[in-house]
């Protein structure tokens, strides 16, 4: 089967968990005998379309404006152009290269128009992997005013994104229930959990030596550091943990709240926090292999129920999970029922501190970390995800004006 994946972020240059997940999915699809092509923006590249290959995956990069690590206003404008830029750059390629299945990933919400054009051209089915319900979370947190022109603008593109999908995969039961209650779509809805390759990386102690952390219990946070995460939640925890000299917090990533963290480190003289910029996926995995506890945090004002992809990296390395969520997020039940870590509601600072203190115990970390790895193997495997995205198929014959078409297999739902 020929599969076409559309995403605003991909390997090898990306440092995002979503890009890593999509590449692992693509590699497994190739391993199973499929031909996979990934289309992704190439900010400020001179050529309209660049072809590269990585681990057997075909990658197309189309000329676009910058959409990462820029002002919110500029990002909104640049992302709004993604469908138009993608279509212009790939029109001739897509006419000559029909695909059987389109998989697209959100965020971004701006590929809906492009996917609609591909479906019409190829008569192919489409699957939306929905990881971020935007602009809802921004409205919940007061970043965007409810019923404002800005919200209506984003809602227009959000709805087009949903209309382009035959199936939408949401990451949890709570998200699925929320979506059914608040959104009216014709697509089939189902739960599609995040996923990760289950192969761990061996520790080299490279970063422990480099950062002088060889005798420390490392509480590791890796990924986006923005408003949606509420990074001061972790800063408050680190401040309280200063009395435990063996505990150290290693924070790695980028985002809107990096400067906020830097200011807090100076203000409270937090010698137990090391803040590093985002690194490559290879270096990120090496860091994970040397850490002891995996941290995550979600803003308490979220109404939707996010499952941060970084948790899967922690599970791969058999690390116990420690974090905070918004109220009623079913992630708390998933982690704690598997005895894979401790999860509190954001704002329950005393409980979070008590849980962090308990994880100073090496024997307990080993037991809970093993449970985290078992949870990955049973619930978040790549093959389980592929079985959902690519169910049983019927043989169909298509006629197009572009080229001769042989028998193709496509999803029948």
For this structure, the CATH topology of the largest domain is Rossmann fold
Count of all domains: 2
Report how far the terminal alpha carbons are from each other. Answer: 16 Å
Main sheet: strands, sense, barrel:
8 strands, mixed
Task: Give the overall form.
Answer: globular
Within CATH, the superfamily of the largest domain carries the name Glycogen Phosphorylase B
Number of helices: 16
Sheet/helix structural class: alpha/beta
Strand order of the largest sheet: 3-4-2-1-5-6-7-8
Rg over CA atoms: 22 Å
Q: What is the average per-residue confidence, as pLDDT, rounded to a whole number? A: 90
Model description:
- With 413 residues, this protein is of the alpha/beta class.
- The chain has 2 domains: 2-195 and 381-411, 3-Layer(aba) Sandwich (Rossmann fold); 206-379, Glycogen Phosphorylase B (Rossmann fold, 3-Layer(aba) Sandwich), CATH 3.40.50.
- It is 40% helix and 22% strand.
- The chain is built from 16 helices and 16 strands.
- The chain has helices spanning 17-31, 72-80, 82-96, 112-122, 136-140, 149-163, 173-182, 206-210, 232-240, 258-268, 281-290, 310-316, 331-337, 349-358, 362-379, 382-389; strands at residues 2-6, 35-43, 49-54, 57-64, 101-106, 125-130, 167-170, 188-191, 217-224, 247-254, 273-276, 293-297, 321-325, 341-345, 393-396, 408-411.
- The strands form 3 sheets. An 8-stranded mixed beta sheet has the order 3-4-2-1-5-6-7-8. A 6-stranded parallel beta sheet has the order 11-10-9-12-13-14, with helices on both faces.
- Strand 7 (167-170), helix 7 and strand 8 form a beta-alpha-beta unit.
- Helix 1 (17-31) packs across helix 16 and helix 12 (310-316) crosses helix 15 (362-379).
- The protein is globular.
- It starts with a strand and ends with a strand.
- The model is unreliable at 393-413 (pLDDT under 50).
């Amino acid at each position: 089967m020929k599969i076409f994946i559309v995403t605003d972020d991909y390997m090898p240059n990306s440092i995002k968990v979503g890009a890593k997940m999509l590449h692992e999915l693509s590699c497994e699809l190739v391993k199973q005998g499929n031909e996979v092509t990934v289309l992704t923006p190439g900010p400020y590249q001179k050529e309209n379309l660049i072809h590269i290959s990585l681990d057997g995956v075909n990658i197309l990069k189309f000329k676009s404006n910058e959409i990462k690590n820029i002002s919110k206003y500029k990002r909104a404008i640049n992302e709004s152009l993604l469908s138009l830029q993608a279509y212009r750059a790939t029109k001739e390629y897509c006419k000559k290269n029909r695909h059987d299945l389109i998989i697209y990933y959100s965020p971004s919400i701006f590929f809906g128009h492009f996917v609609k054009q591909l479906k019409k051209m190829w008569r192919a089915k489409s699957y939306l992997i929905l990881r971020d319900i935007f602009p809802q979370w921004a409205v919940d947190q007061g970043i965007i005013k409810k019923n404002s022109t800005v919200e209506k603008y984003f809602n227009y593109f959000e709805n087009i994104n949903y209309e382009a999908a035959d199936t939408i995969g949401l990451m949890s039961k709570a998200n699925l229930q929320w979506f059914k209650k608040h959104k009216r779509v014709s697509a089939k809805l189902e739960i599609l959990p995040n996923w990760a390759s289950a192969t761990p990386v061996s520790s080299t102690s490279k970063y422990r030596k480099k950062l002088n952390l060889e005798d420390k219990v490392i509480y590791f946070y890796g990924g986006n550091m923005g408003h949606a995460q509420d990074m001061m939640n972790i800063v408050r925890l680190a401040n309280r943990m200063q009395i435990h000299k063996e505990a150290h917090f290693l924070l790695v990533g980028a985002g809107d709240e990096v400067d906020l963290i830097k200011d807090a480190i100076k203000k409270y003289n937090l010698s137990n926090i090391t803040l590093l910029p985002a690194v490559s996926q290879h270096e990120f995995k090496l860091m994970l292999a040397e850490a002891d506890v995996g941290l995550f945090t979600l803003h308490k004002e979220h109404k939707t129920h996010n499952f941060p992809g970084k948790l899967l990296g922690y599970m791969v390395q058999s690390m116990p999970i420690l974090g905070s969520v918004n109220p009623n997020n079913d992630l708390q039940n998933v982690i704690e029922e598997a005895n894979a870590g401790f999860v509190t509601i954001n704002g329950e600072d005393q409980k979070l501190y008590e849980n962090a203190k308990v994880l100073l115990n090496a024997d307990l970390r080993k037991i809970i970390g093993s449970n985290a790895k078992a949870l990955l193997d049973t619930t978040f495997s790549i093959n389980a995800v592929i079985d959902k995205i690519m169910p049983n198929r019927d043989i169909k014959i298509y006629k197009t004006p572009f080229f001769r078409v042989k028998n193709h297999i496509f999803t029948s739902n």
